[in-house]
Amino acid sequence: MKPLDFITGEIVGILLFFIGLYGLMTKKTIVKTIMSMSIMESGIFLFYITINYTVGSVPPIGQAQEAAFVDPVPSALMITAIVIGIGVTAIGLTMFMHYKQKHGITHWSRNRDQTGSDH
Amino acid sequence: MLYLLVIGPILAGIISILFSKKDTRLFIVAAQIVQFIYALRIFIQVRTDDTIFNFMSNVPEGIAITLMADIISSVFILLTTTIFLMMIIYAFHKDYFTTQFGFLFLVLQGLIIALFLSTDLFNIFVLLEVSTVVVAILIMINKEKQAIYDGMIYFFVNVIGTAFLLFGIGMLYRTTGLLDIRAISQVLPQLEDPRAVMLPFAFMMTTLSLKTAVVPLFSWLPKAHGTPSAPPVVSAILSGLFIKTGVYMFIRFSAMFEPVINVQEVFFLIGFITSIFGFIMAMGQNDIKMILAYSTVSQIGLIMIGLNMGSEIAYWGALFHVVSHALFKSTLFLAAGQVYHQYGTRDIRQMRGVLKAMPLTGFAIIFGILGVTGAPLFNGSISKYMISYGSYRPIVQFGLNLINLGTITYFFKFATILFGKDNRAEEAKPPKEDLLSELLVFIMGGLILVTGIYGPTSMNVLFGYEVAVFSAEYFEKGIVYALMIVAAAGIYNGIIKQGGLLNRISHIELTFNGVITSMTGFFLFMATYLYFVL
């Protein structure tokens, strides 16, 4: 067994997920939060498209049956998930840009001002 | 034809935005009434016949995307359509009811109903993601600084939380090759090694705990539900209804995993901690919306206690508490909206004499408070009685009474706005609220009393569960309740008025990174518990 055999899509996917999570836990900049979120999602996409994959299988197109078909469901799910991911990133960036341009804030601040209890 | 319930409101929203130049409010109300009648029909059909299934595009069962209406989900749908109808009528004359607002509101209704009906895991993920977007926009609809910050925290935390769910679904699909909740629950007992689904379980439970806002993942909830500038109807929907999607998914998912993984004790304990934490935090708040938001945390804890107690009566009691909480919490949020609009402040120390200034709203608040604290004959008492009936262990009884004492105490503080002398200058008073919304708040308050007096009947009609509530023991609880009010008055005057430590505790909150860290911590705890303890 070659050492590189351990580096499968699933393992890399799980690693990417937790790298993204680490970024979310430690980075206080909002842009970095959005970037970490994208990394995390890419990890999930990679995990999905490699599950239940066996070497030598073919895409389920046409009638030829010389080899086993790949399960098409995860790929189909991921197309949806990628579109949603793009939408979510776009909305997150829009919110951030609006917030920065209007109020000039780029970091998650320490505390919310206690509006109700002070005025 | 369950999908009509989902696309109906969304279509109505699209039509109303196409004709946005005209006044579409009457059309939206009409659409809501039709929706309500249709939901009622589905509800009756489920009661008389059986569970209704809808397999999309005529694919065989197990593979098709399925919508299912059974006893539990039909009640949730009826509740959704009722509350949304009420909210739309309440908001009819308010200035924030624009076409855009109406559109988002209707889309949210479709999404909530779809969440209650769907049994397909990936559909649930998509619906959660879209509803997060819609809710975030509704929170920051006024574009005020604090609202955008709160909305952003809500948005990012929930998107990241849903990513956990997506990962969990992937791992579950890897083991079982299925995406349908019912099909998976049939396959799971045949699994050779239950360890294979432990990691996906931990991933999914992290998302569900985030959605139900239990300890330690609740810190987004007060921010989102108590956003100062969000319209009261939005807060009422979020607190009364939208949080219940998490509870509903928790019921479904734990039923799905039940054959292999059973972690009732953990969530029972988490429910207790959540409930106690919720009322401690609520005691120190002075913002009228924040009190109600933390109260939601506490009540959700109570629902989790009932669901995980392992006794049938407590389980149905918790489900009835979902219904009664939806009624009284949305009433209280709407009434609070009326009050803080009239008084121009959200600080409850500066509001006095609500009962005299706005009697209808005042009475609705009284009904709401009596409901949430579980006064005899109000709906909260029925569900709380059923939950406490589920266990005779002294420690559980003590805990439930402690939670109720806490609830009464912070609502004692809340109730101070009703009485006293109105200090506002005569010319500073804004024009009176429109009669329609006043009346509607009062009607909703009345519903709390009606579902309480006819508690066993409504229990039977809604869930088909027969229970004899009005026994000697029930009235014993009434005496305990009266004693608790006295104790709460003592605690209020002795401890809460002093502020001090309690005030400081209740203003602790996690930063964004803190929330994500606690989410990761919860996931690690869950995974470790499953692998090493179970």
TrEMBL record, chain A:
Domain of life: Bacteria
Keywords tagged on the record: Cell membrane, Membrane, Transmembrane, Transmembrane helix
Gene Ontology cellular component annotations, sorted alphabetically: plasma membrane
Membrane-crossing residue ranges in chain numbering: 6-25, 37-55, 75-96
Pfam families, per the entry: Oxidored_q2
Keyword Cell membrane: yes
UniProt subcellular location: Cell membrane
Membrane topology listed for this record: Multi-pass membrane protein
Protein family (similarity comment): Belongs to the CPA3 antiporters (TC 2.A.63) subunit C family.
Protein name: Multicomponent Na+:H+ antiporter subunit C
From TrEMBL, chain B:
Stretches assigned to the NADH:quinone oxidoreductase/Mrp antiporter transmembrane domain: 118-392
Species per Swiss-Prot/TrEMBL record: Alkalibacterium olivapovliticus
GO cellular component, one term: plasma membrane
One Gene Ontology term of the molecular function aspect: NADH dehydrogenase (ubiquinone) activity
One of the protein's GO biological processes: ATP synthesis coupled electron transport
Cellular compartment(s): Cell membrane; Membrane
Family matches, as Pfam families: Proton_antipo_M
Keyword Transmembrane: yes
Keywords linked to the UniProt accession: Cell membrane, Membrane, Oxidoreductase, Transmembrane, Transmembrane helix
Topology of the protein relative to the lipid bilayer: Multi-pass membrane protein
Keyword Ligase (UniProt): no
Name of the molecule in the record: Multicomponent Na+:H+ antiporter subunit D
Cross-referenced InterPro entries: ComplexI-like_HydComp, NADH_UbQ_OxRdtase, ND/Mrp_TM
Chain segments annotated as transmembrane: 26-44, 64-89, 101-118, 124-141, 153-173, 197-221, 233-251, 266-284, 291-307, 313-336, 357-378, 398-419, 439-459, 479-496, 508-532
